[in-house]
Protein backbone atom coordinates (compact mmCIF):
# COMPACT_ATOMS: atom_id res chain seq x y z
CA UNK A 1 0.00 0.00 0.00
CA UNK A 2 1.42 3.37 -1.04
CA UNK A 3 1.89 6.06 1.58
CA UNK A 4 -0.44 9.06 1.13
CA UNK A 5 1.41 12.08 -0.25
CA UNK A 6 1.50 15.16 1.99
CA UNK A 7 -0.98 17.81 0.85
CA UNK A 8 0.66 21.19 0.28
CA UNK A 9 -0.62 24.78 0.15
CA UNK A 10 1.68 27.52 -1.12
CA UNK A 11 4.69 25.29 -0.45
CA UNK A 12 3.68 24.45 3.14
CA UNK A 13 2.30 21.16 4.44
CA UNK A 14 -1.42 21.09 5.30
CA UNK A 15 -2.28 19.52 8.65
CA UNK A 16 -5.88 18.84 9.67
CA UNK A 17 -6.47 19.59 13.35
CA UNK A 18 -9.16 20.88 15.69
CA UNK A 19 -6.89 22.15 18.49
CA UNK A 20 -3.28 22.40 19.68
CA UNK A 21 -3.26 18.89 21.14
CA UNK A 22 -4.32 17.22 17.86
CA UNK A 23 -1.91 19.46 15.91
CA UNK A 24 1.05 18.55 18.14
CA UNK A 25 0.23 14.85 17.80
CA UNK A 26 0.28 15.08 14.01
CA UNK A 27 3.45 17.19 13.99
CA UNK A 28 5.23 14.67 16.23
CA UNK A 29 4.39 11.92 13.73
CA UNK A 30 6.08 13.75 10.85
CA UNK A 31 9.57 12.68 9.82
CA UNK A 32 10.70 16.31 9.83
CA UNK A 33 8.79 19.04 11.68
CA UNK A 34 8.17 21.99 9.33
CA UNK A 35 8.92 25.56 10.43
CA UNK A 36 5.69 26.84 8.85
CA UNK A 37 2.53 24.96 8.03
CA UNK A 38 -1.14 25.30 7.18
CA UNK A 39 -3.85 24.14 9.58
CA UNK A 40 -7.13 23.00 8.08
CA UNK A 41 -9.96 22.84 10.59
CA UNK A 42 -11.82 19.56 10.19
CA UNK A 43 -15.31 19.34 8.71
CA UNK A 44 -16.28 17.60 11.95
CA UNK A 45 -15.46 20.72 13.98
CA UNK A 46 -18.29 23.16 14.68
CA UNK A 47 -16.60 25.23 17.39
CA UNK A 48 -13.00 26.38 17.75
CA UNK A 49 -12.58 26.69 21.50
CA UNK A 50 -10.96 29.48 23.49
CA UNK A 51 -7.15 29.31 23.18
CA UNK A 52 -7.46 26.20 20.98
CA UNK A 53 -4.20 26.97 19.15
CA UNK A 54 -2.60 29.34 21.67
CA UNK A 55 1.10 29.87 20.97
CA UNK A 56 1.34 27.71 17.83
CA UNK A 57 3.91 29.92 16.11
CA UNK A 58 4.40 27.65 13.10
CA UNK A 59 0.89 28.23 11.80
CA UNK A 60 1.09 30.51 8.76
CA UNK A 61 -2.37 29.88 7.31
CA UNK A 62 -5.64 28.60 8.80
CA UNK A 63 -8.33 27.19 6.54
CA UNK A 64 -11.63 27.04 8.40
CA UNK A 65 -14.20 24.56 7.11
CA UNK A 66 -17.80 25.47 6.31
CA UNK A 67 -18.89 23.38 9.33
CA UNK A 68 -17.36 25.84 11.84
CA UNK A 69 -20.02 28.23 13.14
CA UNK A 70 -18.21 29.75 16.12
CA UNK A 71 -14.69 30.77 17.15
CA UNK A 72 -14.21 31.58 20.81
CA UNK A 73 -11.95 34.35 22.15
CA UNK A 74 -8.19 34.05 21.75
CA UNK A 75 -8.45 30.85 19.68
CA UNK A 76 -5.29 31.85 17.78
CA UNK A 77 -3.70 34.10 20.41
CA UNK A 78 0.11 34.27 20.28
CA UNK A 79 0.30 32.53 16.88
CA UNK A 80 3.02 34.92 15.77
CA UNK A 81 3.51 33.37 12.32
CA UNK A 82 -0.18 33.49 11.37
CA UNK A 83 -0.64 35.65 8.27
CA UNK A 84 -3.80 34.36 6.57
CA UNK A 85 -7.17 33.00 7.69
CA UNK A 86 -9.55 31.60 5.10
CA UNK A 87 -13.07 31.59 6.53
CA UNK A 88 -15.70 28.97 5.69
CA UNK A 89 -19.30 29.77 4.84
CA UNK A 90 -20.47 28.85 8.35
CA UNK A 91 -19.06 32.04 9.83
Describe this structure as you would to a colleague:
With 91 residues, this protein is mainly β. It has one domain. It is 10% helix and 27% strand. The chain has one helix and seven strands. A hairpin with a 2-residue loop joins strand 1 and strand 2. The termini are far apart. The model has no long low-confidence stretch (mean pLDDT 94).
Quick tags:
5-stranded mixed β-sheet; 91 residues; 1 helix; globular; mainly beta; 7 strands; two-stranded parallel ribbon
Helix content: under 10%
What characterizes the major β-sheet?
A: 5 strands, mixed
Question: Helix tally?
Answer: 1
Mean of pLDDT: 94
* Count of DSSP strands: 7
Query: What's the arrangement of strands in the largest beta sheet?
Result: 1-2-3-5-7
Proportion of β residues? Answer: 25-35%
What is the H-and-E element order? EEHEEEEE
Categorize the overall geometry: globular
Radius of gyration, in angstroms, nearest whole number: 13 Å
Structural class: mainly beta
Kindly report how far apart the N and C termini lie. Answer: 39 Å
Which runs of at least 5 residues are low in confidence (pLDDT < 50)?
none
Domains counted in the coordinates: how many?
1
